[in-house]
Amino acid sequence: MIRVITVEREYGSGGAEIAGALAQRLGWKLWDQALTTEIARRMECDCRVVEEREEKQDPLFHRLMMAFMRGSHEGSQNAPRLKIADAECIREVAEEVVKEAAQCGGCVLVGRGSAYYLQDRKDVFHVFVYAPPEDKVRRLRARGKNEREARHLVETVDRDRQAFIKRYFDIDWPERHKFNMMVNSKIGEAACVEMILHAVSLAEKKAAAAHAPQSVAS
User: Fold this and answer.
1) For residues 129-150, b (16+ Cβ closer than 10 Å) or e, as one string?
2) d(CA 154, CA 168)
3) What CATH number has the domain bearing residue 43?
4) Model pLDDT, residue 88
5) Inside any domain, residue 163
6) Containing domain of residue 96, as a range?
7) Engineered SS bond to 150: which of 16, 87, 145, 190, CB 3.0-4.6 Å?
8) pLDDT tens-digit profile of 151-164?
9) How many other C-beta atoms can be found within 10 angstroms of the C-beta atom of residue 120?
10) Domain for residue 126, yes or no?
C-alpha cells in the first residue's frame, strides 16, 4: 500500500504545483511550504532563513565561520542559544521531519532530500518532474520573473540542488534509478497528475499480486 509520494523536481518544472494537486486529489497532507515552516519552528528561526539555505550548500565563508563558532569556547558554551541555522542543521531537522511525516503516512513530500531519506520504505512512491528549459523559463515568467531572472534561476537553482545531493548523499542528482517514475511536465500539470495516480495504482496492484497466496495445482 502506497502511503507516501515524494516529488523531486527541476526548478521551474511545476513540480510543486503537481505535488499540490496530487495531495488534493488524494486528500493527503502536502509537505512543501509546511515542511519549511516546521523546520523553522523547530529551529526557532524565521522561515526566510530556512528558505535561503535548504537544498543548498553554505557558501565557504559561512561554513568557515560556523566551524570557528562551534570550535571556539564561546561558541561551545552558547551553541544551544545560538540556534545556528546553517545548511547542515537545516538538513538534519529536515530529515527528522520527513521521516516523521512518512511514518504517519498520507502525505506528499516535495524535495528537501525526501526521496533519498525514504529509499528503504516500501510504502513510498518516488516521482521526479522535469521539463525543457524553455518551458521552465516560460513558467517562471508567468510568475512575474523577467527573462533574465528566469534564465538565471533555471541555470543556478538546480546546480545548487545537485551540489546539495552530492554532498549529503554522494549521489549524482537526480540518479534516475532512485525514482519509480520520471515525468516531463511539458504534457501539462493535469496530465502529469493523472499519470502519477495511474502509476501508483498499478504499483499497488503489482505489490498486492506479489503478496497474494499462490494456488496449488491439483
Assistant:
1) bbbeeebbbebbeeeebeeeeb
2) 22
3) 3.40.50.300
4) 80
5) yes
6) 4-57+87-199
7) 145
8) 999 999 999 889 88
9) 6
10) yes
Nine-digit cell at 132?
A: 525543457
DSSP 13-66: SSHHHHHHHHHHHHTPEEESHHHHHHHHHHHTS-HHHHHHHTTSPPPHHHHHHH
Q: How many residues does the chain have?
A: 218
Residue type, 73: H
Residues of the chain with pLDDT under 50: 60-82, 218
By DSSP bridging, strand 4-9 and strand 181-184 are unpaired
Q: Residues 97-111: pLDDT tens digits?
A: 999 999 999 999 999
* 67 inside domain: no
Identity of the residue numbered 8: E
Distance between CA atoms of residues 149 and 65, nearest Å:
30
Q: Is 206 within the bounds of a domain?
A: no
User: What was the pLDDT predicted at 55?
Assistant: 63
Number of domains in the chain: 1
Residue with cell 507516501: 4
Report how far apart, in Å, the C-alpha atoms of 208 and of each of 2, 131, 157, 198 are: 11, 33, 39, 15
**Residue 13 is placed in which grid cell?**
518544472
Closest CA relative to residue 35, chosen from 55, 15, 18: 55
Radius of gyration of the chain measured on its C-alpha atoms: 20
The owner of cell 510504502 is 123
User: Rounded distance, CA 133 to CA 192, Å?
Assistant: 18
